[in-house]
Specification:
alpha/beta; Glutaredoxin; 2 domains; five-stranded mixed β-sheet; three-stranded mixed β-sheet; 8 helices; 13% strand
Length: 309
Amino acid sequence: MKRFFRSKKIFCFGFGQLRFIIAAVLFFAAGLKTHQLATIPLPPPVQGSVFTPLLELLNHRGLLIMVTESEILFALLLCSGIWRRWVWLVSLLCFSAFSLVSAMKGLSGEGSCGCFGIVTVNPWITATVDAILVLLLIIFREHSNFSFNFSVKEKRKLIIVLIVWFVLGIPSLLAMLSLKQFQVTLGTEMTSADGRKKIVLEPEKWIGKEFPLAVRFEQPADSELLKQKKWTIVLIHADCPKCRKLIADMESRNATKVALIDIPSREPAVLPKTSFPVFKLDENNDWFVPTPYIIEISDGICISVNENP
């Protein structure tokens, strides 16, 4: 097909054009990963899969920072056009590896491939796109020699690539290294006339961050249980009819890994009998949040919230 197009002079397409598409994908992915690594802690991989140990290794923050910086450099090399046969080969190997990693995440039940930071993309979609790029690289392969040309022109291009990488890569690296572990904001806090603190919880701001309520339990030591594997956290008021109905529904479905957090109120109320572990927030503050409110956490990191279950 490629020969037909070239012979008819209708359309000419090869690695010389494909490399710019690949560079655009790498720039886009590197930019979004930089944003994620500079702003929020990484959510842990889904547990229980045969691929989990490998995915945990690949999810290491330091490794992802190196991958991001490498993507910027490699995208610049693609745009420069130097060492095209070697760049073609590295592109083929990289996107083959990307496709395999995305497939492993898909088989593990991950909701997103993680290639584009906080932008959620189904792993099977990225695995397919990566496989298509691999196929295109095979079809439109580069036919130049495997050599490192150090002509004056090539040296100038390489110097420009390194300068641009320095200009783009250093700020990106500093941003990714600047993220510090900090206490997650619970929400809006106010002090009433009687001196008690009023806290309006805002769980939607906790996604991707450490679950912040565990340290506010009456018995904080009990929270260690919630730092292991995946849990469904339900914020409830003891006198809330919807909360009682939701608890009964979960009990009837024999739901597992469910924990209830009792939001204290000034009106005494008794929770219905339940088999789920119950934690209570300290009563030194007045807590406000619509209930029931469901929060999914994995290894202590909030991964999703639902205000209207």
